[in-house]
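Q: What structure does this chain adopt?
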Amino acid sequence: MRILVFQHLPVEHPGVFRDFWADGGDEWVTVELDAGDPIPPLDGFDLLAVMGGPMDVWEEDLHPWLAAEKAAIAIWVRDLGRPYLGLCLGHQLLAAALGGTVGPMAAPEVGFTHVDLTGQGAADPLLAGFPPRFEVFQWHGAEIKTLPRGMVVLASNAACPVQAVRWGRHAYGFQYHVEITERTVPEWQSVPAYAASLDAALGAEGAARLPEAAIPRLPAFHAAAHRLYTNLAAVMTVVAGA
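A:
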């Protein structure tokens, strides 16, 4: 398949999914929106993957390209009806592009937490094989506040009730970071906005321990990401045949 990737920061890339895509013979084209890359024609792509970033969906005055990105997401999902995978900011952009609202959290959610599948999530083909509760990696200070019409919640927790969503049969968003690799935490700690949210959530000592704490969790996170990759391929086959 051909994948169009929207990035908002060079270190917020598809992570371990790049390995899966390379092994599967998939091709991807990266658009670095924060660097001024233009959005290409959407024809010819099978999946739109939208990554995270330090900006917020409402900051169009600081990042004017956000308006064009949200418009492209709406066209892709609503008009073209093609599969979408949004992570963190990409999850929030999906909701905003379709008419939902996103706003700041009372406190950032950073580090390792658990999420619980909803009834909709337990029945969703993208989350087939996932347990009712599982550990995830978080790094965000905003959340979806109101859902657009037609969007359902697939996973939740007390800190952030909208952890995973689906719109229609083909558009998915995850607030948590399924793409994590061994380089994710050290690279993100070098970003001032991320370092600030990390210190606010975990304190200086907790922030210093985070890279080491991530290492033993990576095999389980990678296995979960690969299951998502496999499930998404099956979903895309069904959508293409509909």
